[in-house]
Amino acid sequence: MIKITEKPIDIQKVIDTASCLASGAVNVFVGTVRNNANGKNVVWLEYEAYETMAVGEIRKIIDDASHKWPLQGWAVSHRIGTLRPGEVAVVVAVSTPHRKDSFDACEYIIDNLKLHVPIWKKEVFEDGEEWISARPSAVAEKV
Amino acid sequence: MIKITEKPIDIQKVIDTASCLASGAVNVFVGTVRNNANGKNVVWLEYEAYETMAVGEIRKIIDDASHKWPLQGWAVSHRIGTLRPGEVAVVVAVSTPHRKDSFDACEYIIDNLKLHVPIWKKEVFEDGEEWISARPSAVAEKV
Amino acid sequence: MNRYRIKAFGITKDFLGGKEAEVEIKGDTVAALRSELMERYPGLQGLRSLYIAVNNDYAEEGRVLGAGDEIALIPPVSGG
Amino acid sequence: MNRYRIKAFGITKDFLGGKEAEVEIKGDTVAALRSELMERYPGLQGLRSLYIAVNNDYAEEGRVLGAGDEIALIPPVSGG
């Protein structure tokens, strides 16, 4: 399941989708909105996606991961729109027969999602706003 | 939160306990009961814990992890009693400011939990049962 | 001259003045389109990177653009 | 002679015949207790490992056992 949605993400549902009776291990990454960035208070974030391409790029990442690890189930859900601190922006879940693979595959997927998938966030502070990582001067965002 | 419980584990609650407004990353490991082990069908599993010691040993692992990574929140919940295939046996969740740490810390905790925490499982097959990893002849269990 | 409709995302919307723009260029490659866009919207030059996607894939500079192609500007991504 | 009450977990319950057992030994260390248990319950010898916990901590072989100590047999763990 690959989902780009404006609605709050149901983590349990993502995990259920990725789970599988033959798997013993599910690793899940949950990315949430932090209440601060470089020492400034984040009031809210705006997430935007090029949806059709984002789904395609996530699909490619999953395909790559499937060749590297024995994925038995997986699910990726990314939220767009306005998010407040504490809200869930992304959930990646993968299940594999053995646990080390579940960690490695999940990390590979979220790492590549952050590098290649056309989704953007703008942090809105009390005194301004900024598209994250857009300019060379911007401090690289490393959640 | 460290919990050893006979009741089904509420994964969302474990994640909520580990989450933190200042964190951007939560990694979660979910260990479930597989429907097969070494080619044999698992009918159910019996989990047993030396509860007071198990809580103490998990606490030590968390303390160690806290020295290695900047944990901002964490929670470990382990179920005991009778579990059927697909049911959740253990959930570990940790939150950190940056995502790589959340993966590393979560993996450290579950790896050490499996090595040191006094919890035992007995697999019950259609034609017998076996305490996992107890005897040298037993195939090491590697979920 | 070739006319292309461009989708803008993230910060590039600020430079192009909206979610879409039309440009006319002499060439017909991604590289030609890029030069024209950089000249017409100098703000794009200040980005850390700028990819151009064609039909939902990252496109190479030499790719020839067709009339029905869906073309989009991909500034540095920051999902997750 | 020293008398100790032993908690058994996992597969060790099968050998001790229940969740608890009492043993009398000459010595007063973990090592002495271990020898006595191995002799009295030979099934324990077939385990991949056997730790003895005292007051909820893994105990070293030289540890002297006190009268009020909580003593437990820890066969190979398999949680998770």
Notes on the structure:
The complex is a heterotetramer, with two copies of chain A (143 residues) and two copies of chain C (80 residues). Chain A is of the alpha+beta class. Chain A has one domain (2-127): Aldehyde Oxidoreductase, domain 3 (Alpha-Beta Complex). In chain A, 31% of the residues lie in helices and 38% in strands. Chain A contains three helices and nine strands. In chain A, strands 3, 4, 6, 8 and 9 form a five-stranded antiparallel sheet that branches. In chain A, a hairpin with a 2-residue loop joins strand 3 and strand 4 (40-49). In chain A, helix 2 (51-68) runs antiparallel to helix 3. Chain A starts with a strand and ends in a 12-residue tail after the last strand. Chain C has 80 residues and is of the alpha+beta class. Chain C has one domain: Beta-grasp domain (Ubiquitin-like (UB roll)). Helices cover 20% and strands 29% of the residues of chain C. Chain C contains two helices and five strands, in the order βαβαβββ. Chain C has helices at 12-16, 30-40, and strands at 2-8, 20-25, 51-54, 57-58, 71-74. Chain C has a five-stranded mixed sheet. The N and C termini of chain C lie far apart (40 Å). The chains are: A alpha+beta (143), C alpha+beta (80). The A-C interface holds A 31, 47-50, 52-54, 56, 78, 89-90, 110, 113-122, 131-136, 138, 141, 143 and C 7, 9-11, 46-48, 53, 56-58, 72, 74-80.
